[in-house]
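Late entry, evening session. Most of the bench is empty. Finally got around to the prediction I had been postponing all week. Sequence below, unchanged from the version circulated by S.P.
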Amino acid sequence: MRNAGKRAGLGIAVAMAWAAVAAGLAGCGAGGAFDGFGGFGGKGGAAAREADTIRVTPDDGARGVPPDGRLEVRVPDGRLESVRVRRVQDAEPAEVPGAVAPDGRSWRPGPGTRLALAAKYAVDAVAVDGRGRRSARHTTFTTLVPESRFIGYFAPEDRATVGTGMIVSFRFNRPVRDRAAVERAIRVTADPPVEVAAHWFGDERLDLRPERYWRPGTRVTVDVRLRDVEAAPGVYGIQRRTVSFTVGRSQVSRVDAAAHTMEVRRDGRLLATLPVTAGAPRTTTYNGKMVVTELYEVTRMNGATVGFKDASGKGEYDIKDVPHAMRLTESGTFLHGNYWAEPSVFGKANVSHGCVGLRDVKGGSAGSPAGWFFDRTLVGDVVEVVNSRDRKVAPDNGLGGWNMDWARWKAGSALR
């Protein structure tokens, strides 16, 4: 049967140098702003001359500066001696990389630099005019605090041990318009190394996998750098994290719907051949490679949740205690224990609503075929169905991406 079920990334020396500059320029006293030319003055005098000497964009006190907005420090004559731009009042203070132009008249950030969102920045610049006189300027500005944010929910979990068929899958809470920007911000690497490619399924899902199943023992790292990435106009990411998981032993099980058997292979060796019942003639089981995404000791399955309703609109079945249930597709295909069918059907006939059933007892038993298989299954294990009279499972139905050849898979990347 099929059931919707539960759904299941500057040091002290610099500071001292800046303090020395400030001391050399400011001296002692009280009153107005220091004008950089040996005295104090009011707002209309010193501050204005300071601004004319060192011009900073954005303006001092500016708010809502976009992350890719213009950032520049210039002098009309003389040269810039030093420029420091840094994020302040933040849990992760950071310098903005940049360089003074060869003529010494301007400073700009390095290519591709983007400012953090919802952050305050300070600009400190020192310039020397044509007569060798120094001036300093300090300004601040704050960046845009976006009204809309987006986040990616992804599997598997951090530190998990998974089967060799695991696909890294992201679901975004908002449609992604700039797929390339989002894809660039997500990096999946493996040890030992293997090429990992991305494939988009619509605007809200991104899956990543290697060409073939992962090698047992592989350690996979998912580096998520979505913070401040603009996925759609005005919609920015908030995540910045790194997670990892380990690939366990290989287990691939092959269900032959015509022969009513399932061969369980562990690291290529036949572990067992179990009798099964698959989908009945009118409710057949999908063909193709499916991946276990959830494991339940017991769960409820109601046909109404997946379209199997009787004339009154109620589910054709409603079993509140299905034991040893392993989800294979998002649409509701499970491999699960079955205690309500006659024992004689297992290995002989197909009677389910599309799921693959293994013999079990009410309440579930570790000694039953279903209990035995459940106890030896990991999220990420592959179950392949052959010889069913149904179509092949869609690549985006659960983690069905293994049903797509490598060339077609890579063609679904926004960076191809």
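Two things to note before I forget:
The chain is about 10% helix and 40% strand.
The longest strand covers residues 79-88.
Will write this up properly tomorrow.
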